[in-house]
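Backbone geometry:
***
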Amino acid sequence: MPAEDTESVFPVTIEHQFGETVVPSEPERVVSVGFNDQDDLLALGVVPVGIRDWYGEQPFAVWPWAVEALGDAEPAVLSPAELDFEAIAALDPDLIVGVSSGMTDQDYGLLSAIAPTVAQSADFVAYGTPWQDRALRIGAAIGRLDEAEQQVDAIEARLADIRAEHPSFDGASAAVAFAFDGQPGAYASEDGRARLLADMGFVTPEVYDEIAGDQFYASFSAEQTDLLDTDVIVWVTAGPEDDAAIRDMALRDTLTAVREGREVFLDTETAGAFSFGSLLSLPALLDSLVPQLEAAVDGDPATEVPPSAFAESSSDAAAVDDEEAGAETAEPVTFEDDDQAAAASAWSLVFDSTAPAAEKGAHLEDADAVGGTLEAYASAGDAVGGIAMHPTAVVVDGDTAEITYDVLFGGSPAYRGQTGTLGRADGVWQVPTTELCTFMASARVPCEQ
C-alpha cells in the first residue's frame, strides 16, 4: 500500500481485552512483544525494531520462512522469559504489538505508558487467538488491513481447497498432542494448531476442552493416555529427543492410532511453523503437513506417514547446533561477598529444574501456591536435559538484589544476560513468584497465583 494511502486510514482504534487503543498515525518504530506477532508484521511489510523471542534460538528471533521478509534488518531481540519494560522503552516505539503475548492488565498498563499497545480480544483464552484475527488485528493497527485481508483470504481459500480435496479429513478426530516427562496432553480447540486442523475439517475431542477449562491445553495422567486415541495424532515436539521420549511412553503402544500408523511426527521447522501459525509460516507448513495427514487417515494401516518436508535440513541444522553447544561450557560464577553469594545461591536453587520442590520452599515466595507450576517446570527441564539459571552478576541494595544470569538448557547456554530480582525477608533471600511465572509464560504455561 502506498504511503499516502496508509496514512489516510489514521487514526485507527483497536478494541481489545483491556479496552481500546488509538493509533494516531502510521507507526514507524514497532516493537513486537507477542511470541509470534513478528511474522504477521513482516508479512505486511513492517520490520519491527524489537522482537520478543519465543524459542528455537533463531537469528533475530525470525524463523526460516520469514527470513526473506526480514531482509538485512537486525532488530533487537527481547527476552522470552519476561517483559523487559526498560528495554522496550529504550527502543522508543510508537506502537507495541502484543496479540500473542499473554500480557496481564498490569503489563498492559506499563506498556501503554510507553506507546499505544495492541492486545488480544477478550473473546478468546490467552494464547487462543485465531490466526485470522491476529493477522487482521495487526493489519488494522499498522494501517494495512486491506493487505492483511488479502493474505488471510488467500490462505483460507487454500485451506478450503485442501478440505474439498480430502474428504477423509472432514469430521475425523485429531489430537494435537504433546508429552512432558512421560505425561501426555493435547491442545484444546481454541489453540491455534487445533484451530488450523479444524479449518481443514478435523475435529478436536470435546473432552480436551472440558479438561482445559479456560486454558488452551489439557494435561492428562499417564493412565489417561487413551484420550489421545483419535483418528490422527499430531505430535508437537521441540526436537528429535522429544520424539524418542514419546515413542518410549509406557502406554503409547496401547493406542489403536499407534498400531495402525496414524501418528504424525513433525521435524523442528515444521513444528515451529505449526506453532507460529502466521501469514508467513502457514503456506510453508501446509506443503509439509497435508501429505502427512493424508497418509495417516487414508484408512490403510500399511500406508507409511512420510517425514516432514523440512526433516533433512532440520537434522543438519540440529547437528551443527549440537556441535556448537558442546563446545561451550557454562560454569557458575563464585561470589566472595556473603550477601551476593547467598542471593545467587537462592536464585540458582529455585531455577534448578532438578532440585526437589521441597528444597525450594524457603527461597520461593508462596511456594505452596505454585506446586503445580514447579512440577511443570521440572517436566520442562527433563524434556531439554535440565534447566538452570547461572547468576553472572549480583547487585545488592539493602534487602533487594538484582541478578544478571544466563539460562542453560541441558548444560549449554540458551539465553545470556537476563535480569531478575529477589528480596530478603527475615534474613532469607526469596525469589518472587512473578519471576517464576514470567519464565513459564515463555513456554505458554499458565502459572498458579
Notes: The CA atoms of residues 117 and 246 lie 40 Å apart. The first strand starts at residue 12 and ends at 16. DSSP finds 18 helices and 16 strands in the chain.
